[in-house]
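Quick illustration, no need to memorize.
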Amino acid sequence: MNHAFPCGTLPLDFVGTLRARRNAAPAEKLATPALLDDWFVESGMMDLPPGADETDLAVAVDLREAVYALVAARLWGEELPSKAVTTLNKQAIGLPVRLRLGRDGAIRTGSVAQGLASLAREAVELLGGPDADLLRECARPECTQVYLDRSRGHRREWCAMRTCGNRVKAAAYRARQQTALT
């Protein structure tokens, strides 16, 4: 697998395809059209690669950055950036991924535009609904993954315990051990 899905919601996992945003050289997980195709299949949004090209990739990255700008505005209590709202709404009006029943069960197919329209719709529901209050950004300094904090008490700190949570706890443990030795 080329992609990770720690958030439990596709629009936020899509935003996470640009890792470590604040670093001098963030890690781009959608560097090629083939990686965009992989994201759609690995996410379960589509059963077959949609056949992305460079134009599709540029549109997808534009949507990703618009969703991130809107999430960031929600996180910091700022006004939603109008350009990002326009980009999101433009994508949301497109046709969604096709779902049909086949001999082996449900089959999800479509174009990149249809996949992006489905993502945009989910993002509109997330950002415009009650779940927007649950948005959080990972507390690990090198990570900029956003997620919904559905924990009891809403005190979750990391996008995923198995990755960022473990790294932070292991680093704290090593620091305590180092201090104890000196």
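The helical segments are 10-15, 33-42, 54-75, 82-92, 112-128, 161-181.
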